[in-house]
Amino acid sequence: MREGFFHRLGPAAALDAVEAAGLRPTGQCAPLRFLENRVYDVRLEDERHVVVKFYRPGRWSREALLDEHRFLLDLRDAEIPVCAPLRLPDGGTLGALAGVFFGVWPRTGGREPEEFSDQDLEILGRLLARVHAVGATRAAPNRPRLSAEGFFLQPLERLEAGGFLPAARARPYRAAVEEAARVYADRSGGVPFHRIHGDCHPGNLLRGREGWFFLDFDDFVVGPAVHDVWMLVPGRDAEGARQRERLVAAYRQFHDFDARWLELVEPLRALRFLRIAGWIASRWEEAPFRSTFPHFGTDDYWERETLDLEQQVARLRAAVPGAPGGETLAEARELTNQDFFWDL
Known about the structure:
This protein is of the alpha+beta class. The chain is 45% helix and 13% strand.
């Protein structure tokens, strides 16, 4: 029943949720871009705008969603610029409508970055360090740990069980994933894990009148700090390495960062390929996903995905330990906006 209500959600449900939050909407309501959740912008009678997000049933438990909200409130209390959920009449931040959980946020204005100046990198490095410093102060027992088993091997098994991998690609794809998982497990041993953003690409940043702030902690996990660092500055070339070094230098003003953690960048890049494929596969029965990713599941798609992972494994083998981004293979595909802006 919850799933059916979720897929039928429309503006009326968004207005009901905002009223349940103790606010007075005007009736003006607009859907925002989404695939994973359902998100609406609602205008209030006092001319403010709020954003109501309905969480997809079955993806996160109530406790896991409360872990997300608690992290955001911890960050807000530390005066770190994030968009934190509003308190509801019962004092909590998580509501439910027909069994579907929702939260309400103040609408925040600003622009997504097109590129970062060196000054931007320094500001963001310090901000990210503060996010991680707060992240390390409290556990998140109901959020996933960014482990090789949970983020490499289990998604692979789901792809195989669902019959998504063509027979000709199944063995090389599995071999590449298993090798990337092994490298990640080896290199992450002893690295501190704590609450991190988990999806810290530039599309989850806005710059408003008061500066930068972070958005959308929906995918936050317990993991290594370097995962947020590389996603914020993903370039593999010399300029990407320079930018990452500049960001990390500023980061160290507020939080520890061991240069050896950069050895995780390339296995985490491999993880991104796998995670996107697994996410699309898990939603493939839904029409919006089929129209958004029409090439998914074709022989050409899996040929490219397998080649990308094999090239990434070759890079892992060639990488010099401690190097900022590993060595470049000229024929490798760079990640694009489509690879990063996937969880909408």
